[in-house]
Amino acid sequence: MDKRIRIRDTELSVFPIGLGTVDAGLLWDGKEADAVFETYLSQGGNLVDCAHVYSDWVPGETARAERVVGDWLQRSGKRNEIILVTKGGHPDMKGEKVDLHRSRMSHEDMVKDLDESLAQLRTDYIDLYFYHRDDLSQPVEEEIETMEEFVKKGKIRYYGCSNWTAERMRAADAYCAGKGYRGFVADQSLLNLGMKYFKGLADDTLAYTRGDAWDYHVENLRNLEMPYMGNCSGFFHIYAQKGEEGVKDSPYYTQGNVRVAERMRILCQRYGCTITQCVLGFFYHQPFPCVPLYGPAVPEHVTDACGTLDIPFTDADYEWLLEPDTP
Length: 327
Hints:
By secondary structure, the chain is α/β, with parallel strands linked by helices. It has helices at 30-42, 64-76, 107-121, 140-152, 166-179, 212-219, 235-242, 244-247, 255-271, 275-281, 299-306, 315-322; strands spanning 5-6, 13-14, 18-20, 47-49, 83-88, 126-131, 156-162, 184-188, 224-225, 293-294.
């Protein structure tokens, strides 16, 4: 498989698996973080994904993950070897009474978040900057103009959206086309192997790539899909280790996904691959390009995930994994 995906009408060419950093500062920091980053680069990786909110829900430090990434960039001097991604505008996650419906996407919020991200990351610019949520009360034109301001000031190169509806993305695309802007180059939303049969997540501010959003990506290949939660919150790994008892409280625990998990055993034996590779292989058999974001706990997880690109899975494999039982 080709190891890089060119985002259309940009100068960005990205590795097919992005390094997620939601656990940076929690599971790895300092020398452990160096090992994770260097292992990823040794596999050919170049896309490091972060967010200003990671991991403010854990007391003690704000923008923890950006600080870890910035520490590594400062120590390694490898800023020019990566495509750096971060996100702003997420609702405040600090404190005991978190309200995910209280928007933080005003122009002032975005300026504050971006400037703080640049300081934490120890860099002069972000390669790809995302709105981390949307505020339907704000005109999409205003939101685009905020990003264009950042581009003109040299603070970001390109911009994208995370957890936006297809309707709002289409509105943004139309406005950008009229103004001659490149517009959104990537979209981060939830898409994974277990989503077809899962119960859904409690956070209703998350957007799923299905229905109209699925159609949007089929029709709009200039907006690269960058799925998060690609590992299905570990459902298939835990099921393989502990059976149904271990996953009974998971939103992925349905008879449909139990069936997928059992078939996955067969697929892993057929290819001599790991569960991670089987789960991530799903993304390369979609009708539009996907660059999933994968958050490792240890360097060995990075090597395992990147090994997905060498497994000759077929479209038929995933059609079989997900097809219902024949009556």
